[in-house]
Amino acid sequence: MIRTHTCGELRPEHVGQTVTLAGWVDSYRDHGRGLFVDLRDRYGKTQIVFAPDAGEELLQQARTLRAEFVVAVTGSVALRPAGTANLKLPTGEVELRARSLRLLNPSLTPPLQPGAKEVPGEDLRLKYRYLDLRRPEMQRTLMLRHRIIKTMRDYFDEHGFIEIETPMLGRSTPEGARDYLVPSRIHPGKFYALPQSPQLYKQILMVAGYDRYVQVARCFRDEDLRADRQPEFTQLDLEMSFVEADDVMNMIDGLMARLSQAILNRPLQLPLPRMTYDEAMERFGHDAPDLRFGLELVDITDLAAASELRVFREAAAAGQRVRGLNAPQAAASYSRKGLDELAETARSFGAKGLVWFRVEAGPTLASPSAKNLGPGIAARLIERMQAQPGDLLLFVADTFEVTCKALHGLRKLLGETLKLYEPGHLHCSWVVEFPMFARDEETGGWTAMHHPFTSPRPQDLELLASDPGRCRAQAYDLVINGYEAGGGTIRIHDSSIQQQVFGLLGIDAQQARQRFGFLLDALQYGAPPHGGIALGIDRVVMLFAGLDNIRDCIAFPKTQRATDLMTEAPGEVEPRQLQELHVRVVT
Ligand code: ASP
Fold this sequence. Notes:
This protein is an alpha+beta fold. 30% of the residues lie in helices and 24% in strands.
């Protein structure tokens, strides 16, 4: 080994020992007591001193060092002189007094300095990812990622799960996104699809009797990217036989408690809170509510109907909803301009406007709309909203969907601006019993809210035929801090129900046979009741690391335009390759 210790290891107990460190030159300073170099590796940083008494030759050699040169330094460990210890650094009480230096490899002048405080622009970081990955923040996150995945694997191993790999080259699995396709050379005109998830394989594994399957699985979805999405991402994917929804959730509860303890050193109270989809929409306007803070939505449609305020009265008369929230003690935080901005936010979610009231001593309501409310309404509003002087009340009058979107947007914004939660705090909960189907806006037909293999609740089976829109699924989403961190369902294990659901989704018998014949067949060979879930590992890492950009949690991520700036993928290929694949490019 070239080194005897890492750059994060030396402490006062090593004083007097001769050691060799190897690493990258993080920074260097030349001053009175000699030349000082901070040497960095992924374990930390150690101060190296090239003192004048070590000899002119060594000093000369040390003076040629530049940022990011890779070197090995041998010397003796000493306490730093009194008053110069750096207690912020774990190695900060000691230094290495150099006796010899080996240049292992020089470096070109790096376009970004891994040791610098300021974070470089993201394009530069992605292009020179190997330099960016040397930054201690990135190294911490990737080590955390490793720890999280290791904890997950250990947990499931202890619970009798086995990890089974499923193919990358397969048939399309409908998870609602566009497929990445791979042309077949051997079968002209045919294509494999990269998995959007291992969904069908894991169900087949249940039919095959592997009753507890888990996999750290790569998934591919060709969809428009957002800050928290990547075209290829990693799921913790699992499936269990002979279970009901509660059993799967309990298993994940245990995992979250284990992670919280192992990663954050914090106990997590179990069971995690559970609420239905309908309740989540009613109380928070969203199916992945951020429960780190309150600001619950309150319905005032009945008061609106009785009031004289036109926007309120008309919405109520049209069968719409009037809902709002109370931001406690926020009245003083919003000037007229601030309130205009909140109204702008509401409009960006489709609301026609925002009705606001400041609660003043009395308590009474103050705002341009207050005097138009009509007799007695203000007092009832104050009571309904449990308002105190100093509070700010915000209302949206519209369809249920628009009130959900706009108030959810406002709630999120207020939570952030008013700092209603502690940074670093994770709140985990479940949202359950999602609708089976949602309306496809374009075709007017039904689409699967989760995926087409999701089982309805047993008590809703009849609704499949009579009123699919009211049919609720045995589905559950894990929500952390307002993000959907995972989702799963109990599956259909009866091929006739599966056919019926395909039918509702507009997949006729012939198409179903062609695309999923293997599944429909398998369901007829003794398929056990089964269900499972998948967690987005990138997202879970992001939340545990307290970050807000998923790309910072992945070693080699893609940009928002699905490109890799380092390798320059996607790239062009040789015409011969296209020919072999029977593919012609039409642009
Ligand atoms: N395959 C699903 C998904 O990727 C998860 C599941 O239902 O287990 O969202």
